[in-house]
Amino acid sequence: MPVERLLKDDATEEKGERARMASFVGAMAIADLVKTTLGPKGMDKILQSTGRGRNITVTNDGATILKSLHIDNPAAKVLVDISKVQDDEVGDGTTSVVVLAGELLREAEKLVSMKIHPMTIIAGYRMAVECARDALLRKAMDNKQDSEKFRSDLMNIAMTTLSSKILSQDKEYFARLAVDAVLRLKGSTNLEAIQILKKPGGSLGDSFLDEGFILDKKIGIGQPKRIENANILVANTAMDTDKVKIYGARVRVDSMSKVAEIEAAEKQKMREKVQKIIAHGINCFINRQLIYNFPEELFADAGILAIEHADFEGIERLALVTGGEIASTFDNPESVKLGHCKLIEEIMIGEDKLIKFSGVEMGQACTIVLRGASAHVLDEAERSLHDALCVLTQTVADSRVLLGGGWPEMLMAKEVDELARKTPGKRSHAIDAFSRALQAIPTIIADNAGLDSAELVSQLRAEHHKEGSNAGIDVITGGVGDMQKLGISESFKVKQAVLLSATEAAEMILRVDEIITCAPRRREDRM
Amino acid sequence: MALAFDEYGRPFIILKEQERKSRLRGLDAQKANIAAGRAVARILRTSLGPKGMDKMLQSPDGDVIITNDGATILEQMDVDNQIAKLMVELSRSQDYEIGDGTTGVVVMAGSLLEQAEKLLERGIHPLRVAEGYEVASRIAFDHLEKISQKFEFGPDNIEPLVQTCMTTLSSKIVNRCKRALAEIAVKAVLAVADLERKDVNLDLIKVEGKVGGKLEDTELIYGIVVDKDMSHPQMPKRIEDANIAILTCPFEPPKPKTKHKVDIDTVEKFQTLREQERKYFDDMVQKCKDVGATLVICQWGFDDEANHLLMHRNLPAVRWVGGVELELIAIATGGRIVPRFQELSPEKLGRAGIVREKSFGTTKDRMLYIEQCANSRAVTIFIRGGNKMMIEETKRSLHDALCVARNLIRNNSIVYGGGSAEISCSVAVEAAADRHPGVEQYAIRSFAEALDAIPLALAENSGLPPIDTLTAVKAQQIKENNPFCGIDCNDVGTNDMKEQNVFETLIGKQQQILLATQVVKIILKIDDVISPSEY
């Protein structure tokens, strides 16, 4: 007897082959979508938001593209999620992870149609991924001891990362910027100390690294524009009207004169507060909240530079770089730690006035000022630089390095191939498939560059059969080249994360044999 | 339709708005119900066993869940049919009671219903079927007791526990590192277990997850991990030998519950009020300082001024810590939760050997680790994984494993898995059936057949020929009189589950049979379904 309505209306259920097909198709569609952005000759995408203003974003960054997509297919959502995690965790390789997962599923689909059970495929994939990781581990190079070489490794990695982005024109310049900035951090992974300022105008080549800290604020009127040996108090306190915080307090008066008195008392209170602040012996005061005219005037009188409304991040960063603490009460001037810097001055970038703090206590901080023709260019430049910075900090933490240009994939593919030959049983098909999926990445890089991928990849494979080969795809000349000589490197940590999370995601999707979609919650159509 | 007529032939209306209700009666009702129950069981059938597949569920908000856990699948499924809802409840109660075997219980109920349908077609009254099932379930229950084995474990010998947890985990996606996870689960349970009273409070085990890293990085922390950071960015990130004040009052000006107004009408009042406010903040911090606290954990927020004062007086603080977490911290550190500043006293402080903040990845994610607590009875399992769905599924799998370990501590009897217990019960029930007089004999025999459904599903999911495998195993069990023969799902080469180390808890299995029988009895007893029709 047929069952009517087991699930709620609009809820759908897909089973067995159909469910598997739906998730394969969804995952592959996502992978194909971002596939063309892979590699140095990858193309960009324009994303138009559906919100007001229809803002557009031009980007090459896999995570950014996938984040902005509205996806309905559940398997595709898994891929979007791994890309997001990759972004949070290592910062780069967001496209590769999706493409690799997509290729793994594409191969799996062929195996499933050959009547191989998904569980067998998973078992094979698991063996293969172990083998591939071992191969990577064995081939990873570590130049941590040799600081000269390590720096050149970092440069290479930064250039490789940037070469696929909009910054590729000036990649050497930006790579140096990024490496300098990261090395200043001295091993910490705190990217907060690196500030990226975007100012439209000029060209990308005009971007520069500033050793100090730049705050995008103006100096109050009538206050000094330049202070040497500044003592800075970083504060988070109300400097407009200092409200009484006790609950239920309100002012109730019965005559005009009383109003005036209370107003005077309020003024007095503010004056006292300002006096207390001044008593700290400072010549620069930076507040997170607004500073009204009255206290501002008082500060100006005392010859103190007062900066209002620095946002929360700005304040935290300032506190971090100048070594001061964020203060909210001012009763014990002797024990509050003040921040110091050698010079505060107003500088001009383009048409904007900014405040620059140089000679700060913590040498770790720096600011990268990006210049570019339009906001879109700047946004994309920031994303690219962010990727590079992330990869570099990760590399500083885990200094193992691999070559790039499809070299790690071919290396893994070779090892996995050998494993397949040794493994009896149906699993060897899956292991074989894994190696094919790995080889798909250099194929896509070559395809995107308009090269003859079949020819190149087969050449590569032959090269890799020799022990200790450094061969990879040289996109510029369109042939097989020595990656070591060309200086194309990638971080081990990124590659490992790509390999592991792509396999994990593929495994998850493969295990599914039924998709149940609940009825979507009704929403008011706001559009 | 239910129409009754009076002596003049006019119809009575019995049900309110009865023309708008649909109604099923008698055998039709039972058949419809059975079909619905079986449909639910059919969905879960493929998830059974180590080679079972997962389900992908999309919630009304578009979130994706991938899971293998029967209870979760059914809960998220948006079921509309009344009988199907009963099945959902069934799996949920197994989840509450035992925590594991939620898939098995539904598959079992489904196959009992299937057998019942055949009996109904032969004209056996549903109640007789229900009674027969009841008798059979008792036989199976007792038989399980008979074939069960006790095994000894202690804090030094956790191997048997680990093995059992591994059996549970092997059907989940995390089976790649089931060994490590099983060890974590067992250690966590043993850390919080009260071996004297044979009781485990699973609330003391906190399961926290964070995306990124690999599954292998999952760790057990003897302490608490809170997804919070210090309230002020410049507070120390590492505190040793912390004395922790656990507060549920905000560092903010007081807010009396009664409505009140403070009127300011003179300058003096304005100034005194100001003075008081300042003093109030000072007092709060001073009180914490006075009792010797070196860390403040608070459920509520801080005023900016208070925050700075805390920082200034070198008193690190954490704000907006949830109530449950606060309780766990209190248990772990041996402190008391203090609702008012006045009640702070040195003996109410909790103690921890080390408190540190750890940051992850490239974003500003930070977590607070509280370790080496005075009372190490609260532990945290910290899961890492490639994506959100993976973490969620790992959490569910670990929950199952924790429950299994707990059940074993309560009752250390086990039966062997891989369908061997079901096959053995089936043989026992079948034999008992022949000795039972009356119509129930048929029902008992059907029960035996229904028990075969689990090994059948296991074999089918593992890609083995189901009937061949089952009959072979059954024959072997009878021939060798060995109740430990089961389905060799992982292709190990032997089907003696004792050698394969595949265990399940006795109470889990017994509960499955009892619960499944009960639900089937309820469903069989229904002979009239009245539902509001669609409008």
Write up this protein.
The complex is a heterodimer of chains A (527) and B (535). Chain A is built from 16 helices and 20 strands. Chain A is elongated. The mean pLDDT of chain A is 80. Chain A has helices spanning 16-35, 62-67, 74-89, 94-113, 118-139, 147-163, 171-184, 256-278, 293-301, 312-322, 375-397, 407-422, 427-448, 453-465, 483-486, 492-510, and strands spanning 12-15, 45-48, 56-59, 141-142, 194-200, 208-210, 213-215, 226-235, 249-251, 284-287, 305-307, 326-327, 339-349, 352-360, 366-372, 400-403, 471-474, 479-482, 489-491, 512-517. In chain A, strands 7, 8, 10, 11, 12, 13 and 14 form a seven-stranded mixed sheet that branches. A three-stranded antiparallel sheet of chain A has the order 4-16-19. A three-stranded mixed sheet of chain A has the order 5-15-6. The two termini of chain A are 44 Å apart. The longest helix of chain A has 23 residues, at 256-278. In chain A, helix 1 packs antiparallel against helix 4 (94-113). In chain B, helix 1 crosses helix 3, helix 4 packs antiparallel against helix 13 and helix 5 (126-147) crosses helix 13 (440-451). With 535 residues, chain B is α+β, with helices and mostly antiparallel strands. The model of chain B has no long low-confidence stretch (mean pLDDT 83). Chain B has helices spanning 26-45, 70-75, 82-97, 102-121, 126-147, 159-169, 178-192, 267-290, 304-312, 323-333, 388-410, 420-434, 440-451, 453-461, 466-480, 497-500, 506-525, and strands spanning 3-5, 11-13, 21-25, 54-58, 64-67, 149-150, 193-194, 199-200, 205-211, 219-221, 223-226, 238-247, 262-264, 295-298, 317-318, 337-338, 350-360, 365-373, 379-385, 413-416, 503-505, 528-532. The relative contact order of chain B is 0.18. Chain B is built from 17 helices and 22 strands. At the A-B interface, helix 3, helix 5, strand 9, helix 8 and helix 10 of A face helix 1, strand 4, strand 13, helix 8 and helix 9 of B. Strand 9 (249-251) of chain A pairs parallel with strand 13 (262-264) of chain B.
